[in-house]
Task: structure prediction
Amino acid sequence: METKICKIDQDSIERAKQILFSSGVVAIPTETVYGLGAIGTDSIAVQKIFEIKGRPSDNPLIAHVHKDYDITKLVHIEQDYVYDLIKEYTPGPLTMVFNSKNVVCEQAVCGGKTLAIRIPSHQGCQDLLRAIDQPIVAPSANLSKHTSPVTAEHVYNDLKGKIELILDGGKCSGGIESTVLDCTEKIPRILRAGLITKEMIEKTCGSCEIAMHKQTDKVRSPGVKYKHYRPKCQTALYEYEQIEQVINRYDEEERLGNNPYIMCADELAKYFTGKNLLLLGKTDREIASNLYDKLLDGEKKAGIIIAIAMPDEKGINLGIMNRMKKSCG
Ligand code: TXA
Ligand code: MG
Result:
């Protein structure tokens, strides 16, 4: 199968619509990462997503809808804080988990009773969702376990020959996947950290918990238990303070002929003059937005990526560190 990359516009959305309505799948841009979409009520199309990605069959998909879609067609809204969250943070990088009305097929939710809903803000994605006017279920458009794609080219590198169409909406501005929030209980609970932070949710809802995902936990977001986001080269992860150790490791890897690259925030570059660097940016938003891009750039040129952690796990750094630990730890 030939895989085409088309700029997202009226013509390519029309083509995507034809593919989706004939049980096909299409890669779509969002403001977080690229998704691999299928119509959520079409079990044949949904099955294709799992096959193409090599995704474990117990990891449910997020349903994406446009901003005027009535989500009560799909789920039960049982908590009042949900209306405030919708008002404050949608469209945007927030996914909310509700009890499902079972309109979206059971293959998409892996037989579970809940459904995760997201209203992306990316304009091209909104246009597509509006043209379809049905829930589109979409995981990130990468092969399972690999780093999530933030450009159409990243999607192509993973899925060429396996899908017909990639809608190109430019580089994703967010750069890490949406915050997944369990909205079925009195206190909202973060299942996967992202750009909508615990602090932001607390401000809106009064309180917010973070799921610990311990071995003993009843894991509510199955995706978090898998190895994830890994680039194809070797990796190592050091604490923010371990400058000395990073330099030693770099020199050692270089001696071994392993072509090391240090991945860190711009502010640390001054300690590593003359060394190969993958610079992530200055602010937490910039760093989130560049993380996968730099990992995917790094896997092409580095033998080993030596990553340096953020100084803390507050705010957006929690989401960044969650991805860094899984990709490089
Ligand atoms: O930003 C994003 O969320 C991207 C874009 C494409 O929207 N999508 C994405 O999908 O990251 P995926 O499939 O790679 O990750 C979905 C996460 C997984 O950790 C999954 O376990 C969790 O959301 N999830 C999905 N449905 C759920 C549900 N009903 N209950 C709990 N967790 C759920
Ligand atoms: Mg994913």
Residues 139-140, 148 surround magnesium ion (ligand 2) (CB under 6 Å).
